[in-house]
Amino acid sequence: MTAVLSAHDVAYAYEGADPVFAGLSLDVAAGRSLALLGPNGVGKTTLLRLLTGGLRPARGEIRLDGSPVSYSRRGLTELRTRVQLVLQDPDDQLFSASVTQDVSFGPVNLGLPADEVRARVVEALAAMEITELADRPTHLLSFGQRKRVAIAGALALRPAVLVLDEPTAGLDPSGVEALLATLADLQAADTTIVASTHDVDLAHRWAQDAAVLAGGRLHTGPAAGLLADEALLHAARLRPAWGPAVGRLLRRHGILPADAPDPRTPADLAATGD
Amino acid sequence: MTAVLSAHDVAYAYEGADPVFAGLSLDVAAGRSLALLGPNGVGKTTLLRLLTGGLRPARGEIRLDGSPVSYSRRGLTELRTRVQLVLQDPDDQLFSASVTQDVSFGPVNLGLPADEVRARVVEALAAMEITELADRPTHLLSFGQRKRVAIAGALALRPAVLVLDEPTAGLDPSGVEALLATLADLQAADTTIVASTHDVDLAHRWAQDAAVLAGGRLHTGPAAGLLADEALLHAARLRPAWGPAVGRLLRRHGILPADAPDPRTPADLAATGD
Amino acid sequence: MLAIDAAAYRSPWRRHHPAAKALLAGGLLGCALVLPPWPGAPVTAAITLAVALGWARVPPRTLLRAARTPLGFALTGSLTFLVTVGPDGLGWADGGVRRAADVVARCTAALLCQLLFAGTTPLADTLPRLTRLGLPVTLVEVAALIYRMLFVVLDTTRRIRDAQAGRLGTRSLRAAWRSLGGLGSAVFIRSFDRARRLEAGLAGRGYTGSLSVAVAEIPLKTRFLATAPLPAALAILTTLTLQSLP
Amino acid sequence: VHIAEGYLPVTHAVAWSAAAAPFIVHGVIRLNRQIQAAPEDKLLLGASGAFCFVLSALKIPSVTGSCSHPTGTGLGAILFRPPIMTVLGTITLLFQALLLAHGGLTTLGANAFSMAVAGPWAGYAAYLLTRRLGLLPAVFAGAFVADLTTYCVTSVQLALAFPDAESGFTGALAKFGGIFAVTQIPLAVSEGLLTVLVVRLLRTSAAADLIRLGVLRKREEVPA
Q1: How far apart are CA D173 and CA D167, in angstroms?
Q2: Which of B227, B220, B224 is nearest to B3 (CA)?
Q3: Minimal Cα–Cα distance from A111 to chain D, Å?
Q4: Domain of B54: which CATH number?
Q5: Are the Cβ atoms of B137 and C144 closer than 8 angstroms?
Q6: pLDDT (tens digit per residue) in A120-175
Q7: What InterPro entries does the entry give (chain C) (predicted)?
Q8: Hey, which residues does C222 pair with through a beta bridge?
Q9: Is C123 on the interface with B (CB under 8 A)?
Q10: Cβ–Cβ of B140/C200 closer than 8 Å?
Q11: Structural domain of residue B191, as residue ranges?
Q12: What is the DSSP pairing of strand A19-29 with strand A3-13?
């Protein structure tokens, strides 16, 4: 496993407040999907901001491809062209009048020539399947569309790692389905995906790896195993997911073979045990 | 069944836009909990605002205790002292920097004497279990705390019906648990609860009745039955819930008796079939 | 979010009536402004600092950080006193150092009095009481709304800035300007949008134009009220005593 | 630059408060009238005030590498008219004094006179005089003049309070002007440019608001 991005013994405290955490380490494996879980207020967003250069750790270091990130202008540019953060509320990320203008913000700042900027915008809109929104003013879009534009704005920098803070918040089920499909496509095209959530069902369904923030410590491992650990989830004030609970019950009754994976969605159950 | 609040053949269109719906009817049964389900953009919030007097129907009528609502100042005051709406984003409702001052707004507006206002504030804060926040400034509260203050502001009017738009949006699992417990307490104290959501698992777990908005029509019935109808959920672009799917599978395998209710949470499964 | 504001809500003096705190800090402020700067200003500053740190427990870090900008202003502004502009151009001013020291001392003492009040008295307690001083209700209500919305808008501003930085919006001067223009317009749009949503939210709570609320009573504690003028009295007495010394 | 608490002699603090008072009273009367006519404007005024506060807290980069804050008084005067801006500006100054220790309570009158009265009125006049040259040039002129006026008035206030030992008021004005106003010219240009950038974006994304505020003359100036 190569860690494309990692936090090494990182501590952070906001001004005048107690430390959010004092010494966390996390490796983000290249090409995989990682869910960061924890209750509100535990520091998920802080950790994501540390990983993406928005905050500078008080102690420890963030490493990109194994080398410590430098917080010089050049170092930050390097980090930000490789790692992009998508915020929970798309309105915090859309500040231009039109979709095209907004998506071009990153490439233009990078100083790319106009042709290249245009190509990047077209590519990012296509990846998010919103090519038809290119000329629309951002403020007339629906929430789900604005979310897609915000992600396109990050993709326009062609990041190796896409970090999303609560990407499904505010989306309805079909919006969630569509987003998960898009994330899978991005991952297939070699983008590493990190997403924070407090929805264990979602993480169990979507992520290959998981990291659970509980009591100032980070527990990491493959999602299937880690998210079946009810004691850990309880300690992290999270609700157990249906999938592992159903899988356990079905295996106990011999309906599911002992080595079968847990179901991920209710639809998986339709064919089970027949 | 007595309908404390109902919509009768209600139509509404925003200015310059297509009708959101053309002729919906809904009865809210006194003392029960009703979940209003549908994807984003289908008009859930519009319907809630019609029910609570925030919008006036283009056709049809809203009825309170069986009588049509009058849109005079007096009629609206009557409606709003009986029916209170809590919005999704608490910052859309909290206008004061002080929690106590904010919660007192409704009762003061109603012209109640100072003693009564104070008593109502104390009562509402106690009902939401946030008495200790009374002197805290709004802007230093967490999202979940602000949400509770917003609900307390509605409760201070002692409404017969509490209407909540996406009450669990943005809350983490333990926040959701706490809110559901509080809503159950309110219902036990005779408050009728209506909540919109697009989370079928949540609705299945929490609500006695359900109403699903699909294709401009409203399908209503007891939650247990309605939310097990996968064809309806599919038409409404919602994701089937785990509970009914698991229940169906377990009954098929004889693990659950034919007349047993569907499980509501993964925790329900632990004791199942033993 | 704003350190002085946060300190005010946590202050052990939170339970004291704003008027009593205004009397205490105001008395000291009067001393800082009216007493002869030497030894009046250092005496007042010392007493105010003792009250702020020892009695009112204003966090020293907050006090220090808040004092930096205004002290910077006082120092740079007073540098001009050191020189004089005459017919032959610039020259050193006679007594310029003394004059600068007077002003900086008075300014420091007054600033500490201001921070003593601000660091112990939340605006949420003060604003609704301003109507009792005869200020128009609409003015006070608008001020209270600004105070509430300020934090919502500040929070939005911080997040937009972070998002811009994340997309290399601070990489060059050009990018920084582009970001700033976007930020300014986004904050305007978000503020107005917030106002409209708040209007809809309040309509559901019965808003028809008045934002009257019940203000929690804070009893005027006679003991605190009685001690409130004492620090100022002490400052006056000490100054007079020191002056009468040969 | 806000005059700090205790910096001005008492007589000056009182005199400037008296000078600012009629403008503030006038603004409050206009505010009252506006809210009486349209109660829903109360919330918009709250938002406008919050916007002014945040605007004045932004950092603008300058060529010298140092950072400064815009006064925001020009944009505020253009958007909300000088009388309303006087009220919003004074409230902003009060909050800056109590929340940030920028400016003082006894110097509130002096600061209000420069930032909430002189700056907005001068900026608005410049805006009106240049309005026929087009929206953006007028916005630049308004913001530039408002910013510069604010700092010139502050220099006058300081020079009056601390006349030069030899050359009196004129010498002092030259000194304070040297320190504040002259270094302020690049910053006034910066504020003018920033304001143009903001209004240019608002013209596309918030045209309806600008029309309602009377900044845009109906549809003619709204880009397609």
Answers
A1: 10
A2: B220
A3: 19
A4: 3.40.50.300
A5: no
A6: 999 999 999 999 999 998 888 999 999 999 999 999 999 999 999 999 999 999 99
A7: ABC/ECF_trnsptr_transmembrane, Cobalt_transport_CbiQ, ECF_CbiQ
A8: none
A9: yes
A10: no
A11: 3-222
A12: antiparallel
